[in-house]
From TrEMBL:
<dbReference type="Pfam" id="PF12840">
    <property type="entry name" value="HTH_20"/>
</dbReference>
<dbReference type="InterPro" id="IPR011991">
    <property type="entry name" value="ArsR-like_HTH"/>
</dbReference>
<dbReference type="InterPro" id="IPR036388">
    <property type="entry name" value="WH-like_DNA-bd_sf"/>
</dbReference>
<dbReference type="InterPro" id="IPR051081">
    <property type="entry name" value="HTH_MetalResp_TranReg"/>
</dbReference>
<protein>
    <submittedName>
        <fullName>Helix-turn-helix domain-containing protein</fullName>
    </submittedName>
</protein>
<dbReference type="InterPro" id="IPR001845">
    <property type="entry name" value="HTH_ArsR_DNA-bd_dom"/>
</dbReference>
<keyword id="KW-0238">DNA-binding</keyword>
<keyword id="KW-0805">Transcription regulation</keyword>
<dbReference type="InterPro" id="IPR036390">
    <property type="entry name" value="WH_DNA-bd_sf"/>
</dbReference>
<feature type="domain" description="HTH arsR-type">
    <location>
        <begin position="15"/>
        <end position="97"/>
    </location>
</feature>
<keyword id="KW-0804">Transcription</keyword>
Length: 199
């Protein structure tokens, strides 16, 4: 393993999760994490927003500790922002109704963004090199499991992904030749019945 590094993570409270469960804020945080520091103006251009709305969303993200001002890059005219952490995690043992609703709202926002990313990836699939087509997949596995067995398998898969992340350079740094940002989207859930199926 040798090059393992610590991944900075944030575990937001219910109010912070609610603030993050907004499509544009989620995208802004993702861009700051993946591409590094940026100004409100440059983010507004990337996202097709006006700079006033972008500045407002950035202030909300900063208020809840997701991003911070990058004082080393800023000047009197331009404020630069950077992500405060590499990853957002939520607790799975939440029982409080308000907190559970916030986790669900964040999960829905994250899912919408992941579907968007996956669609863009599929649109680009035929333009990829044979090597990158071979390294890509859109697979699903349906397996009969108990909740305990599903949790154990999910934990094992997550451990492999966290290990790979810990052995990679931090996001936002320039990529070496041949290296791409690769997204693994892991969705685990008890399969709901099809619409109209007997409950």
């Amino acid at each position: 393993m040798g090059n393992e590094r610590t991944i900075s993570r944030v575990e937001p409270d219910a109010m912070a999760l609610r603030a993050l469960a907004h499509a544009q804020r989620l995208r802004m945080l993702g861009l700051l994490r993946m591409e590094g520091p940026a100004t409100a103006t440059s983010l507004a251009e990337r996202l097709g927003l006006n700079s006033g709305a972008t500045s407002y969303h950035l202030r909300q993200l900063a208020r809840h500790g997701f991003i911070e001002e990058d004082a080393a890059r800023g000047n009197a005219r331009d404020r630069w922002w950077r992500a405060s952490h590499e990853s957002t995690v939520t607790r799975d043992d939440v029982t409080d109704e308000v907190a559970l609703d916030a986790v669900a709202a964040f999960g829905q926002a994250a899912l919408n963004w992941q579907i968007h990313q996956m669609q863009r990836a599929m649109d680009r699939f035929t333009q990829l090199s044979p090597e990158w087509r071979g390294a890509s997949t859109a697979s699903d596995f349906t397996i009969p499991l108990t909740a305990d067995a599903a949790r154990e398998l999910t934990d094992r898969l997550m451990a492999v992904l966290w290990e790979a992340k810990q052995n990679s350079p931090p996001l936002g740094e320039p990529l070496s030749e041949g290296v791409e940002l690769v997204s693994y989207l892991l969705h685990v859930f008890p399969l709901p019945p099809e619409d109209g199926a007997d409950k």
